[in-house]
Amino acid sequence: MFSTILIILVIITAAVLIYAATRPNDFVTTRTATIKAPPEAIFPLINDFSRWPTWSPYEKIDPDMKRTLSGAASGKGAVYAWEGNGKAGKGRMEIVTSVPSSLVSLKLDFEKPFRANNTVDFTFVPSGENTAVSWAMRGSRPFIAKLMGLFMNFDTLIGRDFEAGLANLKRNTEA
């Protein structure tokens, strides 16, 4: 009886591991919001890391988080590093592309609670008196992330933060 249960557990574990290995190697999480403001009013809030505390949901995770700004004051070459509690972790962002009122691309490197190297893009598409602002993050998904993804939806978790940040941008620029 014990050996039968053990064999079944081994088969189930192997099946889960094999299934996880077949999951995509890359991920993309994107959220978009329509903001009643021109791109010129929204772009500076993203292109300048010193303005992120006014809208980024990640700023509220750890009130005692240590933040370091370096490099350019804004735009390409601007760097934001942080170190906080277990939830905030430790990492670094650098603006690698800045096209006024159109695109801000970041290189995002997490050190803690896990290592990851991702790309983040903010795009601005004007339409009349509105602007569609998209926040996208993409990166590779190592095996452990594929396995964890079977039990939790990272798109939903990350997407919830993106939606909150975009709502803050909307509130700040439409006021």
Spatial strand order of the main sheet: 1-7-6-5-4-3-2
**SSE succession:** HEHEEEEEEHH
**Oligomeric state, counting identical vs distinct chains:** single chain
Global structural class: alpha+beta
Number of strands: 7
Largest sheet data: 7 strands, antiparallel
Helix content: 25-40%
Description:
The protein is of the alpha+beta class. It has helices at 2-21, 39-47, 143-149, 154-174, and strands at residues 26-35, 66-71, 78-83, 90-99, 103-112, 116-127, 130-140. Strands 1-7-6-5-4-3-2 form a 7-stranded antiparallel β-sheet, covered by helices on one side. A hairpin with a 6-residue loop joins β3 (78-83) and β4. α1 packs across α3 (143-149). The longest helix has 21 residues, at 154-174. The radius of gyration is 20 Å and the shape is elongated.
Would you kindly provide a brief summary of this structure?
This protein has four helices and seven strands; from the N terminus they run αβαββββββαα.
